Amino acid sequence: MIRVPKFFNTAGPIQPDIHYNIDPLTRIDLEELESLIYQRKYFVLHAPRQTGKTSCLLALRDYLNARGEFYAVYANVGVGQASRNNVEEVNRNMVSVIARETSRVVGTGMPSALRLELKIKRGDLDKTIAKGLEQTVWYMDRCGDVSGGHFIVFNRDKGVSWDEKIWHRREEYGGRTITVWGM
Fold this sequence. Notes:
single chain, four-stranded mixed sheet, 4 strands, about 15% strand, P-loop_NTPase, ATP-binding protein
């Protein structure tokens, strides 16, 4: 194989073996991010195009996973953009990406089966949760001995603050425990 001299990256995450780069973890306030993670708070990384956002998130994922304290997963859910008018297809594509990336990180330590359902809140939150619980348990029953069920409710209401949108709780339904995540 021909050895390629290093060059400046102009697209996608850096590959340190072939790209000139600055360690992505030196570009972020790691202490502040760790504090937010331990407090179970959420954060958003804003920056212009081609400034290394993905490289920073991938480096943070690898850093957290190397410590063995968390399972950190990076999943690009942009796959939903192409079929944005078909909610069910978007859900399937996003679940597939999240499951694939989770499997890469967790490997053989992944639960025997994990069910993840995505819902977009339309109207009443309690009705959205009730429908999501019903669907998640139905999927879990079809999968057999499922050790954990999760579903995510995406709240797209523009007038609602992030503090109100981001939450999680456990629900019992059909003899199963489901973790419901709001975002």
